[in-house]
Design goal:
Layout (H helix, E strand, L loop, with lengths): L6 E5 L3 H12 L4 E3 L4 E5 L10 E7 L11 E4 L5 H7 L5 E8 L5 E6 L5 E6 L2
Parallel strand pairs: 1-4, 5-8
Antiparallel strand pairs: 2-3, 3-4, 6-7, 7-8
Helix pairs in contact: 1-2
C-alpha cells in the first residue's frame, strides 16, 4: 500500500461558498462533477502518479463538523501563503503555523462550513 489515505471528502452545506473559499486559500480551481442528489467539486490531485485526491461534497449525509478526523491539505512550499487567506475568505484560524520539527509545519482552521481542516508544508 503506497498511501494510507485513498480519497477524502469535505462535507459542505453551501457548495458555492465552500468552493470559493478553497479556491481562494489554495489558489486552485475546483472542478465540479456530477453528483446524484447534491453537488461535488474535485480538488486537484495527481492520481496517475499515486497522489491522494479528494473533494467537496454537498448532499444528504454530508454534515460539516469541527470534531473527528482532520484532513491535512497541501500548504504548498510554505503554508503561510494559504493560511494568510483563510480569515479574509471567511474561515477562522484556530492553530497558527506550528513547527512539527523535521516533519515541517502545520496549522488548523475552521472553514466557511464549520469543518476543522489543516494545512501542512515543509517550511
Amino acid at each position: 500500500m503506497a498511501n494510507a489515505i485513498n480519497w477524502f471528502e469535505i462535507p459542505v452545506t453551501d457548495f458555492t461558498r465552500a468552493k470559493k473559499f478553497y479556491e481562494t486559500i489554495l489558489g486552485v480551481e475546483i472542478m465540479e462533477m456530477p453528483f446524484p442528489g447534491g453537488k461535488y467539486g474535485m480538488l486537484p490531485a495527481d492520481m496517475q502518479n499515486g497522489g491522494v485526491g479528494g473533494g467537496l461534497a454537498q448532499g444528504e449525509g454530508f454534515e460539516p463538523s469541527d470534531k473527528g478526523t482532520i484532513v491535512y491539505l497541501n500548504g504548498g512550499d510554505d503554508l503561510s501563503v494559504s493560511l494568510s487567506k483563510v480569515e479574509k475568505a471567511g474561515g477562522k484560524i484556530i492553530m497558527p503555523k506550528t513547527s512539527i520539527g523535521g516533519n515541517g509545519f502545520m496549522a488548523h482552521f475552521i472553514d466557511t462550513e464549520g469543518n476543522r481542516v489543516a494545512l501542512h508544508s515543509m517550511k
